[in-house]
């Protein structure tokens, strides 16, 4: 596989460094700047695989673009047309043609589910608030922050993240939205509890 990937000269670059593929265990993600590059990359991989007696599984191999235009060229492996998709799950993260928003919304839902499961802890008056905060950060926020390094943010997503964080803190402190407590007051209470 290395032979096929080394011959591929793509136009995708990050920080001026050309990136043509990503590897994890036996998975390979090929990167191409246009349809011709992609078709050439798939053809090179298919040819290199067959030289070693290995076949690419066309049912498991997918294509995703970040272009608004659909692919014009049919890309094939073993005479089967590869399916074009708009999102997939990779190493526990959702990779989407819509950027980070689907992944972040999914993480928010998972975080709030974990928060709800720990309701007996949040309601327990015998547990110190500082201990509850440590539990929240280790058991709940870690779910949300998994693979966050690759997220792209905008104002809407930042607002949703802040709302989720405040919801967690309010649940932990036992503050209802009916109490008319501002986010600043909630933040101050959390800060004072961690000092």
TrEMBL record:
Top-level taxon of the source organism: Eukaryota
Keyword Chaperone found: no
Keywords: Endonuclease, Hydrolase, Nuclease
Span of domain Reverse transcriptase: 1-95
PROSITE patterns for this protein: RT_POL
Gene Ontology terms, MF aspect: endonuclease activity
PANTHER family reported for this sequence: REVERSE TRANSCRIPTASE DOMAIN-CONTAINING PROTEIN
Name of this chain's protein: Endonuclease-reverse transcriptase
Species for this entry: Plakobranchus ocellatus
């Amino acid at each position: 596989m290395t032979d096929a990937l080394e011959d591929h000269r793509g136009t995708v670059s990050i920080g001026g460094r050309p990136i043509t593929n990503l590897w994890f265990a036996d998975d390979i993600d090929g990167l191409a700047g246009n349809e011709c590059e992609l078709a050439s990359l798939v053809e090179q991989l298919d040819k290199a695989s067959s030289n070693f007696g290995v076949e690419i599984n066309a049912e498991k191999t997918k294509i995703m673009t970040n272009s608004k235009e659909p692919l014009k060229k049919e890309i094939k492996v073993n005479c089967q047309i590869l399916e074009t998709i708009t999102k997939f799950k990779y190493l526990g993260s959702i990779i989407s043609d819509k950027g980070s928003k689907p992944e972040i919304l999914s993480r928010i839902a998972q975080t709030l589910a974990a928060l709800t499961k720990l309701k007996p802890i949040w309601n327990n008056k015998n547990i110190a608030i500082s201990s509850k905060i440590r539990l929240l950060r280790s058991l709940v926020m870690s779910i949300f922050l998994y693979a966050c390094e690759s997220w792209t943010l905008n104002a809407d997503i930042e607002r949703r993240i802040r709302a989720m964080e405040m919801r967690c803190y309010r649940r932990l402190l036992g503050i209802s939205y009916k109490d008319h407590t501002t986010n600043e007051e909630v933040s101050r209470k959390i800060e004072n509890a961690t000092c």
